[in-house]
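@here heads up, posting the sequence + SMILES for the magnesium ion run so it's all in one place. Ping me if the SMILES looks off, I pulled it from an old spreadsheet.
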Amino acid sequence: MCGTCGCDQTARTAQTVNDISRLSPPRTEQRRLQVEINLMAQNDHWAALNRKRLDKAQCLALNLMSSPGSGKTTLLEKTLQALPGSFPVAVIEGDQQTEQDAERIRAAGAPAVQINTGKGCHLEAQRVSQALDQLLPAAPHLLFIENVGNLVCPAGFDLGEQRRVLLLSVTEGDDKPLKYPDIFARADLVLFTKTDLLPYVDFNRDRCLEFARRIRPGLPALSVSATRGDGLTEWLEWLGQPG
Ligand SMILES: Nc1nc2c(ncn2[C@@H]2O[C@H](COP(=O)(O)OP(=O)(O)OP(=O)(O)O)[C@@H](O)[C@H]2O)c(=O)[nH]1
Ligand SMILES: [Mg+2]
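bot reply: prediction finished. Complex structure tokens:
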């Protein structure tokens, strides 16, 4: 859980945890746990509010999670190009630094809000709520939330999305489900990306999917090459399927 690595601490809570760690060990552990529980409860509260707002707006929100660089933004660019021009879609971009991904999305034709998490390695529901303030008035039917590139911490933070898509590029290795089970356990779809590179890497899709389904039985899977366009039709069909 992310509270263990401390990556979700704001400056204030990080200070609190530092203060706590000066206390005697058993009490320190108890207080640290309490801080983590409070932070998670706060996140869950904001996530529930987000979900209510999205449901009311009839907007389907998808949380895209993956390691850094596995092709989230490229897939979104291609998805936006493939959707009819008038289709109301919006994007929230999460990165530690820079506005680059939001700029790429805007260049592809959709409104985008960039969230910079600084030291944080995942998005949190309260920041997503602030982004919704900007994006929901335009009444999008589809909202993509590109999480910060990380196969660990995003698994623990509900953002209020309806569906979670886990991207795994073929260059990352087919053992990843066994090494990072939490994120696979919470996925609604695993999307194998960069399949154009399969001839050059040692990646066994069947083996990887078998590992993933040990963790999440029946987990649906698709394969795409965003650069070549392979699998985009199936991806768009999946997007159009009811919950
Ligand atoms: N060969 C190949 N390269 C791809 C594909 N999709 C993305 N890439 C490349 O992979 C690199 C990272 O792509 P991004 O779309 O920025 O990845 P990302 O997951 O959004 O990265 P972060 O936001 O930094 O986590 C870029 O150089 C892309 O051109 C693909 O289908 N095939
Ligand atoms: Mg990106």
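MO: The longest strand covers residues 89-95.
MO: One more: The chain has ten helices and seven strands.
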